[in-house]
Amino acid sequence: MKKIVIDPITRIEGHLRAEVEVDESGVVQEAYVSGQLFRGIEIILKGRDPRDAGLMAGRICGVCTNSHFRGAVSAVEDAYSLTIPKNAEIIRDLMAMALFIQDHVVHFYHLHSLDFVDITSALQADAKLTSKEAHRYSDKPFRNSNAHYEETIKKLQNFVDAGKLGPFSNGYWGHSDYKLTSEQNLIMISHYLEALKFQTKISKAVAIFGGKTPHPQSIVVGGITSVADMLNPQRLNDYLFVMKEAKEFIDRTYLPDAKLLATAYRDEIKAGVGRANGNFMSVGGYEFEGEEKLFCSGIVYGHDFENIEEFDESKITEEVDRAWYKGEEVFYTDLNEDGSLKTEKNDDKYSWIKAPRYDGKVMETGPLARVLISYKKDNTLIKSFVDEFLEATDLELIDLSTTVGRNAARAIETGYICEYIFKLVSRLIQNVKYYDTDTWTKYDFEKLPKDAKGRVFLEVPRGTLSHFVSIKNQKIDNYSVIAPTTWNATPKNFDGLRGAYEEALIGVKIEDTAKPLEVLRVLHSFDPCLACAVHIVDTKGKELSRYKIKSI
Ligand code: NI
Predict the structure, then answer these.
(1) pLDDT digits over 37-91, tens only?
(2) Residue 293, Cβ neighbours under 10 Å: how many?
(3) From ligand 1's centre to the CA of 529, what distance in Å?
(4) N vs C: which end of the chain shows fewer Cβ within 10 Å?
């Protein structure tokens, strides 16, 4: 057995380490993933005014700022039983949807695509053939002229000639597991560069109603403050303009490129590479039409999609047997003498990430979980997107539960969010037109209960996010967060169960142990956000809202 250590894993947010044990044929037999940086935003929140929770919780992460901002404000609203006006909810949703699109595009192109795309091979591409190849995945490929591809090759050659690969340095270029043709590589690189420009455009959409981004500031307990923006038709037009561009970009680059990858890596998909244990969780959400939601909620065990259970928050527990906490203290244990994590004994601690469980089971959360659960629960909007993708790539639903499939699910989700956004804006316009301009539910803070507990469950780009707040004497007494990456990157526990990251690595064959590209691929497919993932556990086992943390 040989151990491969990757630390730090780059092209993610935060500090993640992975150790995998491979047999003599290079097949992963065991895996340990570890959150490597202690955080402590919850400590900062203690003793603060609950109305400030959002602005501080937003600082949990520099990427998911809007998700934690909204999560914290919503948890406080739940504690005070405040219902916000419809318009405020729509504005919050419009900000959230823009963030979904931004996150997914940045993840696919800038954080993950280079695990599949060989830059050096793109230099050999023929511009004319590239243009032809792009037409296999889209009727109207984005910037598909010969001149554009020739210019892209020139740009890449300049990087190489200068001896500085810039964003493309330190790749495993030439690795035998890169399967795209030179022309396919060039298409992807062209879109990688275009997606850099796209990032700035889509960020504007969050900022239109958020004041700025990252760290928008227009959500307040009871509603929103961007009232003038909501009532100004020009601002709505600005938002719609960005979204129309976004939709075009998604339709002409992201979805076709996801199809290209799914076609080129078909063998891996069919072999189930990167599949975790098939337990999926979604809390659903985002009002669509009537009772229908953008995402359906549900719990799936072992890929059994015919028996989707209802989500029940009382089944969530958190434990820290193998995380660096003990009693009321953080408890960091040193590494082994060779610098590896202590993992030999079943109570050895190896991560700052605590271990959430649903009914005692590990869960995968994120776009894949949402897409699968929503599809199987007959969500009308998503069904056509999934069917179209599966037909175009000749794949089945189960194939999405793989490394490449996880990316396909994310692209599908982005596509249907783009459709949904326009319906959401129409609803807002209709509301405002019929003189419902409410944006804030009035309350007198002094008259609110002195002691209260609240929580919220939200679907955010990387999966299910929950915030829990306990208020005593109008100050935050206790705060707790379970982020999507906490679920997916959970360490083992006394239960010995591997989390989604660890389980997805088992059985993966590594061609060259000096260049463990295959490990990066699996981990990146989850879009790790480690700053989000690390949260201290309430070790006293206090009850937060209607939710109980299991004490050790
Ligand atoms: Ni984050």
Answers:
(1) 888 888 899 999 999 999 999 999 999 999 999 999 999 999 999 999 999 999 9
(2) 18
(3) 5
(4) N
Average of pLDDT values for 291-297? 91
Distance from the alpha carbon of residue 367 to the mean position of ligand 1, in angstroms: 15
Q: How many domains does the chain have?
A: 1
Q: How far is the CA of 301 from the centre of ligand 1 (A)?
A: 26
Angle between helices 146-161 and 182-210 (to 10 degrees): 90
Is 249 inside any structural domain? yes
- In angstroms, what is the span from residue 253 Cα to ligand 1's centroid? 25
In this model, does residue 514 exceed pLDDT 70?
yes
Does some domain include residue 264? yes
Q: Residue 399 domain-assigned?
A: yes
Count the neighbouring beta carbons within 10 Å of the beta carbon of residue 270: 12
Q: Can you give the pTM of this predicted structure?
A: 0.95
The CATH number assigned to the domain holding 111 equals: 1.10.645.10
219 falls within a domain: yes
What is the structure's pLDDT at 494? 87
Q: Please, which pLDDT band fits residue 542 given cuts at 50, 70 and 90?
A: very low
Which residues are within 8 A (CB) of 95 and not within 5 positions of it... i.e. 6 or more apart? 66, 70, 206, 209, 210, 216, 219
Q: Cβ–Cβ contacts within 10 Å for residue 162, how many?
A: 9
Query: For residue 33, which phi and psi values (nearest 5 degrees)?
Result: -115, 145
Task: Measure 524 CA to ligand 1 centroid, in angstroms.
Answer: 14
What spacing in Å lies between the alpha carbon of 64 and ligand 1's midpoint? 4
Which tens digit of pLDDT belongs to each residue from 356-380?
Answer: 999 999 999 999 999 999 999 999 8
